[in-house]
Amino acid sequence: MNTEPGPPVKEQLANPDNYGEARTADQIRYLVIHYTGNDGDTAANNAAYYQRTVVRASAHYFVDDTDIYRSVPELRTAWAVGGKGGAGPDGPDGPDGAEGPAVFPNLKRMY
């Protein structure tokens, strides 16, 4: 039951070729959260794009001003865009282009 204020999390999973293998909760170092703040860009559009298009990159969540979409299950590795290794299985699994953990003070563990 979601007791936090804000929109409910909708789920539209990305194409499985856009994210990696299973992991345990103890192995999680990062969750990739991509804020879709570009003009005309939405969380729903991003979730749909990564579901239908294989790009070997992903984010666990897409967030805009009104919606939150889960695109990759937390117990799977998202392949972030950017960083030293680029996207894909050999690249970073951290936040887009980040080399250290991002700080989201209102994000709680869900498992």
Structural class, by secondary structure, is mainly beta
| Strands, count | 6
Q: Estimate the mean pLDDT confidence.
A: 74
- Biggest β-sheet: strands ordered side by side in the sheet: 1-5-4-3
Largest sheet: 4 strands, mixed
Strand content: 15-25%
* Percent range of helical residues: under 10%
Indicate the low-confidence ranges by residue numbers. 82-111
Number of helices: 1
Describe this structure as you would to a colleague:
This protein has 111 residues and is mainly beta. It has a domain at 9-78. Helix content is 9%, strand content 17%. The protein has a 4-stranded mixed beta sheet. The chain has a two-stranded antiparallel sheet with strand order 2-6. It is globular, with a radius of gyration of 13 Å. The two termini are 13 Å apart.
Compact description:
By secondary structure, the chain is mainly β. The chain has one helix at residues 43-52; strands at 9-11, 19-22, 33-35, 61-63, 68-70, 76-78.
Topology overview:
Elements: E1 9-11, E2 19-22, E3 33-35, H1 43-52, E4 61-63, E5 68-70, E6 76-78
Parallel strand pairs: 1-5, 3-4
Antiparallel strand pairs: 2-6, 4-5
Q: Which key phrases capture this entry?
A:
111 residues; mainly beta; 4-stranded mixed β-sheet; two-stranded antiparallel ribbon; 1 helix; 6 strands; disordered C terminus
